[in-house]
Amino acid sequence: MDIQNRVSNYLKESFTSDLKAGFITAVVALPLAIAFAIASGVEPQMGLYTAVIAGMLVAASGGSRYSISGPTGAMTVIILSTLHSFGLEGLLLAGFLAGAFQILFGILKLGKVVKYIPLPVISGFTSGIGAIILIGQIPNALGLIIPSKEHVWETLYAIISSANLISSTAITICVATILLLLFLPGLMARIKYINSLPPSIIALILSVLIVYYFGFEIPLVGSIPAGLPQIQMLNFNFELLMNVLPAALTIALLGAIEALLCAVVCDGMTNSKHDSNKELIGQGIANMALPFFSGIPCTAAIARSAVNIREGAKTQMAGIIHALILLMILVFLGPVAAFIPKAYLAGVLILVSLRMININEFKTTMSISKMDTAVLIVTFLLTVLTDLVFAVQMGMFLSIILLFIRLTNVIDIHTMESYDRTKGINATIFADPYLEKNVSVYTINGPFFFGAMNVFESKINEHMTISKPHIILRMRYVPFIDTTGIERLKSFIKASRKQHQRVYLTSVQPEVMKRIESDEELTELMQKQHVHICDSSQDALTFLKKKYGNK
């Protein structure tokens, strides 16, 4: 009875809104699914298979209520690269493994970790992918029949070699498509009955009618087989599996990043909250299932998800409805694709690629940080000029180096002379002749790790020339200490002991204290009172003055 009530309430409250949103989203997704498949170097129907299956599975099992999944521009480049390197068998296996990785990310609750990839790396990847898509669509825009190439310079060389075959009709259709997509929304917004219609479908209908009636001889998509494909088994060859593993991990990471970014955008538009780990599991389930139905790797698409929200979607059923409508189009209207000009798809993808190249992010990054700018530009160039797997690896490596440099720059060690002589610990020290003559105080700010050692060494060398018998290391602002820090701390304590100096560690954070106590040698030094642990610097001063000040 409860299920009946829920179904009844859904039909009354949400079904009409979800039906409208799902229909419009499907209409928007149709040309994009075909275009991204062709840009990926696979048959156009594979894009539709992906949109149908991913749309259903992710909507049913994902963690974002409004996200729409399917083939996307960001994935086309890595798909094309994998296809060129390992063939269709390798691509399908890489997609399956990518899904397994994404499910593992979700189970291990790594959803939030993905969000910490630096913006310059993401911007460099995204803009680089946009540039590759843009260059890859030039042949279709010019009416040239050139197979998809793995590298941009190969595409450019092929264009120059075939320059005598350029079609003015194809150029006209491509330019007209771009102009319609840019200016139709504003014109249609003023007309009540068609303001919800996607401009892309109007441009599609016009281009199909023009080709059909005038019989222009330009490259066309070709007829799409009706219905879903037969279930097929994958080639789980161990050697092939090991070869495609890096590509699979790259697909998983890119898909995870885009899916979670899309979920965040949807949250902002609807004031809702997604479950990042559940979304990763949903994406993984879809990517593991797709290869068995000749589908290519998928992820959430921000543009289609935004359309879904703008058209009034209320539940995840809108995503499932969008997939069912695409399935109906695939079953009944497949032959119509025979008249879709590739120049129209080029116009759609050129606009998509230009939006991926975010000039404002470039300007903002360049005005804020030279290091961020270097990471962004290097990642962008590597994405465009090398393969995406290498670009991802180098981008992550550069982001780690960037983090290391910034952490190192955060580290600082202040002496007591840096502070006001009349306040706090200095007031105590300078009010007492013994303390002023015999105590050095160092305040460590930031993580005490291998990157901080050069700063620590310089301050310690400075201290050795001063050579006061009591050294207080204030550690209130040390959030963590690594193995290198522990080892260097032990070396410093031993060296100080040989110089007849005593070391006091004060205000040590609990996590840092755990690391110190877990080291047997440091524990022994504390037991032998070669180093003293004090709750505060004032406690350390009171202790040493009482014990040594009257001698």
Estimated helix fraction: 55-70%
For the biggest sheet, the summary is:
5 strands, mixed
Question: What structural class should be given to the helix and strand makeup?
Answer: mainly alpha
Total number of strands: 7
Radius of gyration: 31 Å
The global form is elongated
Strand order of the largest sheet: 3-4-5-6-7
| SS element count, helices | 25
Oligomer: single chain
Distance between the termini: 88 Å
Count of separate structural domains = 2
Strand proportion: 5-15%
Mean pLDDT: 85
* Low-confidence regions: none
Architecture blueprint of SSEs:
Layout: H1 2-13, H2 15-39, H3 44-61, E1 69-70, H4 73-107, H5 111-114, H6 119-136, H7 138-142, H8 152-161, H9 168-188, H10 199-214, H11 238-270, H12 276-289, E2 299-300, H13 302-310, H14 317-332, H15 342-356, H16 359-368, H17 370-385, H18 388-410, E3 412-415, H19 424-430, H20 433-438, E4 439-445, H21 453-466, E5 470-477, H22 483-498, E6 502-506, H23 510-517, H24 520-527, E7 531-534, H25 537-548
Parallel strand pairs: 4-5, 5-6, 6-7
Antiparallel strand pairs: 1-2, 3-4
